[in-house]
DNA sequence: GATGAATGAGTGTTCATTCAT
DNA sequence: CATGAATGAACACTCATTCAT
């Protein structure tokens, strides 16, 4: 994947710091007004730098969008594994992954929306890179599901499809948060969704296992 | 709703015809390149009219987007009731509604995506009008669910949340069609999703009812 | 002068009638919003005809302006001689001319303003034609002045310059009517202006003559 | 007056310089072809800058017109007081004011014409601001006349009306310069006009005073 | 490294004018 | 003669990007 964003500045640490400033500003503005309505000058102003400076750290306005979306996807890739760190039981790992995913999405629903809304504004290559990152996130879920199947706790279902249903569960909150917030909480939404899926996925052995867990 | 799009031409039939031309062209282009990257001239060219003519039937480029999204939402509001016309059994009606929704979305996944991507590009008023139409579509689903609950076939769940899960099922196909198409079909996707939800919603009485239906 | 406006319609009487409709509408609109801000469609609408029809009686939007200005200038050329018809005394003729000029201007100050504001919007040829008409109007005044000089009533002054001062007296009302109306009337304005000029122009013989007139 | 024109550039001196460039170019072009027929690109080209740059110093094409008219009116407000600086005698001050006014108008007759022709092309607020400036110029004249009346040199006439006659004298040169230049000079035009007004305004005491001045 | 003035290509929109009906 | 839908050239204005300082 050739999707490294070019910078004319060498000092890696400075590049990082500047980009963070810019990405933070851009995320807010893109979320509010969309990619196209947001001008580079607005981003620069909110980031507290000059418009010209941005082009020392990024080759185009599109690159900024790429960095923004990258940072969103990275937060997924960071948070889910973190939530799984100390969990060993396959079913518990699955549940933890789902909860973690929903939680990251819930923390910045606008960011997730942004990914849906603006990915197409990127060039083909960067679009592909973003999709690649999404697939990697999904693999975190597929692996959990596969493990639970291997352990005999989940039925032998289409793993990738199941993973996508989870993704849609999590993203669904972001997509419809404006309405959901009016009659439910993220936690409730997540647990009910989780129930739904467990219901459909657990084998009798899986059920027994779960009950055992709870009885402990 | 004050969201009628203004036309300087009076002949209703002509207005309808021209708008259809323009909306068809715009849907394709907006879907391909997004609202902002698409120029009015491109739309005009694809629609086979002059750029100026568009402004006889629409007051702004934004109006064209509104018309496009409106036509998408209208197709939902048209197709779902049609699918329910001759179905009386509450559970069957629910299933028919879900299948119909998934089918309309599947017929023009780009159009559904467009609604997600570009609704924010509209002015506040038109945005509200679109959301209103979406709510109306959802009510087609809530009514089905309520009826099934009233008949004792579905458990007493949060109706609106359930409806939204269905919406996300249907829209999910559009959102991830690029991937889904690689390993499943819309029908399979729909039926499996339906199963999932029925599993979670049916009461014992509902289950018995279903089995009876099939045995007939 | 090749400044005849072309019409594709032959029936002279109809041409006249239609043009009057259009000119009336255009005068109002040009006066209100200026030539450039006024659209042909607006003129057509106010005139109660279709936009296309105008082009049967006129070759361009500019032609309409020309007709409008022509009608203004013609009203000068018509009213001043009428006011002189039964007056034979040179000084009286001069006074009658001045009063008549001020009166026509006062009747449609907007129209006079229009001539100042929009003559430059015409093509060179039509601009020249309008100036020509203005010169003709001025000659009505110069002739009066010359006659009064010949009769020994006026001093031997620069006749054309004097005529222009009168023109500016009359036009001045239109140019500053928005202010003048607040503290004087057209009649007062006219008489005081006339006094001013007579003062400067009358010979002793002229003065005696005037006094004699009044004593009669 | 809320009629300050906005600039996105802060450096006051640069703003001043650029605006002067633009105003100079615009004055010429507006004078030649009128406000509406002149394109922003033409102005930019003549000013030797890019079209886009203009919008760093001005918010709209209309603002350029405002700046142009403002500069005309300012030249009046600057030159007339300057001409009065070392003159103390009321009648002399009046004469100096009239001569100064005619001279500024004569220096850029096109600019004065522009004010007549294009003030209506401004928005309501800027139109009002221009009229306000015109009133201020007029007050320079009224004050002279009032002083001469107070000193017993001028008769007790309607001061504002008299001031406007002077204004029309000065503007008259601009309005009809195309003709006047063919048979007289600005100086002659001015002096004769001044005579005319003095004739009508001076009291016997004023006459005596004048003669005295000359005899000195 | 940082600034922000300058560029100029690109776009939505208007409107005089034409012409099929 | 009359209509008004259709055309398309023209124009104000925006904004990503560059580069001299």
TrEMBL record, chains A, B, C, D:
Pfam families given for it?
A: TetR_C_24, TetR_N
Q: Which InterPro entries match?
A: DNA-bd_HTH_TetR-type_CS, Homeodomain-like_sf, HTH-type_TetR-like_transc_reg, HTH_TetR, KstR2_TetR_C, Tet_transcr_reg_TetR-rel_C_sf
Transcription: is it a keyword of this entry?
yes
**Keywords noted in UniProt:** DNA-binding, Repressor, Transcription, Transcription regulation
In what residue span(s) does the HTH tetR-type domain sit? 16-76
Tell me which residues form the DNA-binding region: 39-58
**Cross-referenced SUPFAM superfamilies, in alphabetical order?**
Homeodomain-like (SSF46689), Tetracyclin repressor-like, C-terminal domain (SSF48498)
> Which GO MF terms does the UniProt record name?
DNA-binding transcription factor activity; transcription cis-regulatory region binding
Q: Which PANTHER family match?
A: HTH-TYPE TRANSCRIPTIONAL REGULATOR BETI (PTHR30055:SF234), HTH-TYPE TRANSCRIPTIONAL REGULATOR RUTR (PTHR30055)
Name recorded for this polypeptide: Transcriptional regulator
């Amino acid at each position: 994947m050739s999707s490294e964003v070019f910078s004319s500045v060498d000092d890696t640490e400075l590049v990082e710091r500047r980009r963070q400033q810019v990405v933070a500003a851009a995320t807010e503005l893109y979320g509010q007004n969309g990619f196209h309505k947001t001008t580079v000058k607005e981003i620069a102003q909110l980031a507290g730098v000059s418009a010209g400076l941005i082009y020392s750290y990024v080759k185009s306005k599109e690159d900024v969008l790429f960095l923004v979306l990258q940072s969103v996807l990275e937060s997924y890739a960071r948070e889910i594994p973190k939530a799984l760190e100390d969990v060993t039981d396959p079913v518990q790992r699955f549940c933890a992954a789902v909860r973690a995913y929903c939680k990251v999405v819930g923390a910045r629903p606008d960011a997730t929306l942004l990914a849906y809304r603006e990915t197409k504004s990127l060039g083909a290559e960067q679009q592909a890179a973003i999709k690649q990152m999404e697939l990697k996130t999904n693999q975190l879920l597929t692996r959990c599901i596969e493990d639970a199947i291997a352990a005999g706790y989940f039925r032998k279902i289409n793993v990738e499809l199941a993973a996508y249903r989870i993704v849609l569960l999590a993203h669904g909150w972001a997509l419809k948060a404006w309405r959901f917030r009016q009659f439910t909480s993220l936690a409730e939404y997540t647990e009910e969704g989780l129930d739904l899926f467990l219901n459909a996925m657990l084998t009798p052995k899986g059920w027994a296992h779960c009950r055992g867990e709870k009885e402990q």
